[in-house]
Amino acid sequence: MPAQPRTIAVLGGTGAEGGGLALRWARAGHRVILGSRNPEKAAKVCADLNAAAGVDSIRFLDNRAAAAAAEVVVLTVPHAAQRATVEEVRDALAGKVLIDATVPLVPPKVSRVQLPAGGSAVAAIQALLGEPVRVVSAFQNVSAHALRDPAHDVDCDVLVCGDDPAAREIVIGLAHDVGLRAFHAGPIANSAAAEALTSILIAINIRYKVPGAGIRITGVPAAPA
Amino acid sequence: MPAQPRTIAVLGGTGAEGGGLALRWARAGHRVILGSRNPEKAAKVCADLNAAAGVDSIRFLDNRAAAAAAEVVVLTVPHAAQRATVEEVRDALAGKVLIDATVPLVPPKVSRVQLPAGGSAVAAIQALLGEPVRVVSAFQNVSAHALRDPAHDVDCDVLVCGDDPAAREIVIGLAHDVGLRAFHAGPIANSAAAEALTSILIAINIRYKVPGAGIRITGVPAAPA
Q1: Which phi and psi angles does B76 have, rounded to 5°?
Q2: 3-state secondary structure B177-220
Q3: Quick one: B209 exposed, middle or buried, by C-beta within 10 A (0-12, 13-18, 19+)?
Q4: Could you tell me if B191 and B137 are in contact, meaning their C-beta atoms sit under 8 angstroms apart?
Q5: CB within 8 A of A202, min separation 6: which ones?
Q6: Which chain A residues are within 8 Å of B113, Cβ to Cβ?
Q7: Model confidence over B69-103: pLDDT tens digits?
Q8: Residues in CB range of B136: below 8 A, 6 or more apart
Q9: Cis peptide before A39 (omega within 30 of 0)
Q10: Chain B partners of A159 at a C-beta cutoff of 8 Å?
Q11: Which residues on B lie below 8 Å from A158 (Cβ)?
């Protein structure tokens, strides 16, 4: 069990990245709720994830109900759905930590950095929600492919950006619970670096024909393991 | 000796990052010319670098003469001096590879990502110079502190961005010559990620009290060593 079991809503949890996080958090002993607009798909994914995690604790609700029931809300939807999803659950977010893993990819050139005006898709959500919600950017660089395979460790560190250090600390703990090293990486504006880096990792995947390049931070001897 | 000894002009070579690269390229057998606007300072730095590298081949010229004499020109000046330096040497760059290591830090908040309008300081230089010059972005994330200590390997990979794959390949070779792993990281627009990442590394240096955090790319088994 984790030091502090939490109720975590994963909006977009039926996708690859969200599903991988949900699976690993459930295995670690957290209470995971998938948020989805499609109950049939959610039921299927939920059953698959419970089986893969060897648990029966993952459940699903619509996005609003999932966010309302959770202490920590995680956003793992495509960039095109980011703002609408946040607006949908906004009433349920006050006082909570919102982990936003959004990467502003612009199909079809997803290996090309194309940051939105202002620089960061996640910083824009913090600006939208204001002080009542502590937005923390994390998990942009972690391969969904690797997350979905619970038999293997994930060879990637997590850059954790947010304006509230205590909220960053909660997210670093949640990363540790799934076996990931994670680092305080500065204010929410710094999310631009993590968001942009994902396109470079995709470019490297293509160029070097690998399924999931990642990053490690070096030079920090006492880094959390 | 490197596979292909080159004449390399390092503009801003009297600074920490440029000096570190100059020292290591000279040790590897390349012909290095520091470009500087200050002959007295350049003479002093040149002597120090030759002594540290155990060579006497590093010399200095003014920026224009250095760029004119070189096959490859490297830009390691502060962001505030980037465009003026490029304009100063522009006539000497046609047909050459310009390696631009500029990081658009905005003092005093250098640990906060503050990318310029358009996203990348280096992509802006490629746009300025146009097709006659092949601009390649590299070395933004490599600690000057580590580069200046030739007794130790540098625990950091180099992200190499540029629109011309052959030019990127030259830069990857030059990184290898100083013991750095380097990766094709996509078009020049992707430089935004490397530029932004430097502020995150500074934030990590401050938070974790280390002199030079870096990055490693994971998941690429056949990566160049």
Answers
A1: -135, 55
A2: HCCCCEEECCCHHHHHHHHHHHHHHHHHHHHHCCCCCEEEEECC
A3: exposed
A4: yes
A5: A105, A110, A111
A6: 119-120, 186, 189-193
A7: 999 999 999 999 999 999 999 999 999 999 999 99
A8: B97, B98, B99, B100, B160, B161, B162, B164, B167, B168, B170, B171, B188
A9: no
A10: 200
A11: none
Percent of chain B with pLDDT over 90: 91
Q: DSSP of A109-164, one letter per residue?
A: -TTS--PPTTS-HHHHHHHHH-TTSEEEE--TTS-HHHHT-TTS-----EEEEES-
Nearest residue to A195 via CA among A155, A148, A145, A139? A139
Concatenated DSSP letters of A191-223: HHHHHHHHHHHHHHHHHHT-S--EEEEES-TT-
- Residues B219, A155: C-beta atoms closer than 8 Å: yes
Q: Is A162 on the interface with B (CB under 8 A)?
A: no
CA distance B17 to B14: 8
Extract the tokens encoding A57: 């604790």
For the whole prediction, is pTM greater than 0.80? yes
Q: Please tell me the distance from the alpha carbon of residue A85 to that of residue A71, in angstroms, as a whole number.
A: 17
CB contact under 8 A, B219 and A199: no
- Can you read off the two tokens belonging to residue A58? 């993952």
> With the CA atoms of B58, B64, B68 and B73 taken in that order, what torsion angle do they form, in degrees rounded to the nearest 10?
60
- For residue B183, give the amino acid letter: F
Task: For residue B41, give both structure tokens.
Answer: 């300072």
- C-beta separation of A24 from A49 below 8 A: no
Residue type present at position B222? A
The pLDDT, as a whole number, for residue A223 is 52
Centre a 10 Å sphere on the Cβ of residue A127 and count the other Cβ atoms it contains. Answer: 12
Q: Which residues lie below 8 Å from residue B206, measured CB to CB, with a gap of 6+?
A: B111
Length of chain A: 225
Instruction: Give A38-45's long-range contacts (Cβ < 8 A, gap of 24+).
Output: A38/A14, A41/A14, A42/A13, A42/A14, A45/A13, A45/A14, A45/A19
Name the amino acid, one letter, at B92: A
Q: Does B141 touch chain A (CB under 8 A)?
A: no
A78-120 per-position pLDDT tens digit: 999 999 999 999 999 999 999 999 999 999 999 999 999 989 9
| Half-sphere exposure at residue B42, Cβ-oriented, CA atoms within 13 angstroms | 19
